[in-house]
């Protein structure tokens, strides 16, 4: 701006010279004053970003001692440069449905994922509700079936630079009508971004209880079935309504630390008639808020739950995290459910080692609400108070060069194959030896990704200790599982 100043003064001088000689002296001086005022206005306008903040933005910028991270500039945080305020003044009854801010300035993105699987078991463990040859009397079960298990649309929106919205709608077994079709919001929340270390989140939140619950999408995982610990003890998907904070710190040159902390609705361990929802055969599946029978999804007690996860990465490719969940699950808010989880991710070249271990404690779950011993109808034993489990999985990513040479149009640089081995072990009743919830499984798999977003999987499961939910019996069962999944 200082370089432009002499030019403006020359412009003023030229304008003065060009004025006719007959012009009145007062008119000449008035023009000079106007040009000088215009010059001062231009100087002030260009100096503003480098100087002090204007009244509209004062306080929005960070101070030199605040770590250098600017807070949101609310005056500029709009969908578009000039946005009319929302009001009830819109006219025309037929057009009022279009009086939405996203119509004139769209910000939403729609995507999702889909999967299809085929299963073939040695035993009739698939409940089809219709009966089949060789099934148990009065029970509809089969050993093989196709299942379009999940169709999951995502809706994301960058409302402004600092306001984000994310949601996931899950439709399970969508080809079926009636009670077998599950439609629910997996999560739906709004985020307000203050800075990288501290951000606000509120809504239906995907709980940070372990890592798999946060990254459970079918196209993302290399095996079709979720780990046993994430089916029974951390029943994925685990989400609740609530609010809290999340962020990232950098404690060292290469180190990174992420955290999430929320206060949420909490679990529901009992039906309205007092029937328990936590058992050895089902684990913690039915205690989730999404399975609650309480009207309108309200809390079944006065207590709330707290949940958090802290993940530390000392170097790229290594992450170790701990998380915890604690809340009351009974109507009187006297019995607590606590879950502690350790998860890890180790990556080096084409090799990857991941896993998760969880411990759960349900205070006084072995007693009914009136204090009498609580017998589990599925097992004939006391209901469990303690559960634990883990999985450990190794992945090896590769792509034979001979395939790329033979069919470069099918096996491109973006294609990859993955060999997978996973060991699962859980015990949903540590208070008694054996039992239906003492499960073990070895899975061997191979998958092909033509691109990272799409995967075709094949795996074979050795169920050395399995459970038949149709007959409530411990069995030995193996299974061949084929599936396809893709983001869209």
Topology record:
Blueprint lengths: L3 H15 L6 H23 L53 H4 L3 E14 L4 E2 L13 E2 L1 E15 L4 E10 L9 E12 L5 E8 L22 H4 L6 E11 L6 E9 L40 E9 L4 E11 L7 E13 L2 E12 L23 E13 L2 H6 L9 E12 L10 E14 L2 E15 L4 E15 L1
Antiparallel strand pairs: 1-4, 1-18, 2-3, 4-5, 5-6, 6-7, 7-8, 8-9, 9-10, 10-11, 11-12, 12-13, 13-14, 14-15, 15-16, 16-17, 17-18
Q: How would you describe this protein?
A:
This is Phosphate-selective porin O and P. Residues 49-68 have a biased composition (Polar residues). Residues 43-87 are annotated as: Disordered. The chain is mainly beta and 488 residues long. The chain has 2 domains: 4-45; 113-487, Porin (Beta Barrel). Helix content is 11%, strand content 40%. Strand 11 (318-328) and strand 12 (336-348) form a beta hairpin. It is globular, with a radius of gyration of 31 Å. The two termini are 50 Å apart.
One letter per element, helices H and strands E, the order comes to HHHEEEEEEEHEEEEEEEHEEEE
Question: What share of residues are in beta strands?
Answer: 35-45%
Q: Average pLDDT value?
A: 83
The number of helices is 5
By CATH, the architecture of the largest domain is named: Beta Barrel
Give, in spatial order, the strands making up the sheet with the most strands: 1-4-5-6-7-8-9-10-11-12-13-14-15-16-17-18
- Counted beta strands: 18
Portion of residues within helices = 10-25%
First-last Cα distance: 50 Å
User: Largest beta sheet, briefly?
Assistant: 16 strands, antiparallel, barrel
CATH class of the largest domain: Mainly Beta
Bulk shape: globular
């Amino acid at each position: 701006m200082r370089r432009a100043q002499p030019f403006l003064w020359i412009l003023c001088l030229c304008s003065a010279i060009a004025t006719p000689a007959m012009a009145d002296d007062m008119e000449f001086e008035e023009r000079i004053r106007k040009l000088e005022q215009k010059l001062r206005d231009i100087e002030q306008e260009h100096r503003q970003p480098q100087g002090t903040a204007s009244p509209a933005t004062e306080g929005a910028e960070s101070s030199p001692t605040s770590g250098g991270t600017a807070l949101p500039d609310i005056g500029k945080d709009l969908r578009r440069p000039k946005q009319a305020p929302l009001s009830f003044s819109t006219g025309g009854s037929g057009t009022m449905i279009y009086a939405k801010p996203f119509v004139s300035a769209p910000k939403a993105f729609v995507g999702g994922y889909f999967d299809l699987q085929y299963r073939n078991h040695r035993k009739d463990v698939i409940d089809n509700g219709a009966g089949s040859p060789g099934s148990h009397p009065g029970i509809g079960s089969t050993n093989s079936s196709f299942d379009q298990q999940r169709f999951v649309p995502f809706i994301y929106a960058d409302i402004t630079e600092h306001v984000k919205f994310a949601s996931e709608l899950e439709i399970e077994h969508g080809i079926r009508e009636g009670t077998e079709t599950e439609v629910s919001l997996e999560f739906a929340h709004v985020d307000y971004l203050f800075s990288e270390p501290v951000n606000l989140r509120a809504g239906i939140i995907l709980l940070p209880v372990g890592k798999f619950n946060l990254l459970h999408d079918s196209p993302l995982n290399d095996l079709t079935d979720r780990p046993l610990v994430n089916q029974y003890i951390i029943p994925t998907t685990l989400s609740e309504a609530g609010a809290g904070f999340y962020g990232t710190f950098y404690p060292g040159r290469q180190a990174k630390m992420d955290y999430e902390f929320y206060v949420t609705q909490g679990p529901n361990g009992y039906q309205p008639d007092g029937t328990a929802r936590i058992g050895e055969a089902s684990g913690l599946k039915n205690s989730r808020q999404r399975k609650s029978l309480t009207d309108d999804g309200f809390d079944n007690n006065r207590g709330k739950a707290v949940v958090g996860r802290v993940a530390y990465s000392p170097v790229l490719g290594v992450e170790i995290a701990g998380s915890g969940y604690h809340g009351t699950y009974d109507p009187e808010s006297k019995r607590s459910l606590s879950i502690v989880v350790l998860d890890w991710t180790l990556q080096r070249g084409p090799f990857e080692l991941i896993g998760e271990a969880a411990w759960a404690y349900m205070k006084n779950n072995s007693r009914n609400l009136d204090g009498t011993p609580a017998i589990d109808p599925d097992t004939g034993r006391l209901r469990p108070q303690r559960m634990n489990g883990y999985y450990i999985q190794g992945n090896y990513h590769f792509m034979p060069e001979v395939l790329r040479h033979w069919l470069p149009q099918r096996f491109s640089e973006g294609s990859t194959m993955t060999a997978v081995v996973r060991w699962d072990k859980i015990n949903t009743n540590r208070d008694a030896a054996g039992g239906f919830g003492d499960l073990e499984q070895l899975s061997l798999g191979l998958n092909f990704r033509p691109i990272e977003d799409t995967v075709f999987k094949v795996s074979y499961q050795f169920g050395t200790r399995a459970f038949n939910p149709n007959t409530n019996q411990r069995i030995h069962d193996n299974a061949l599982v084929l599936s396809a999944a893709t983001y869209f």
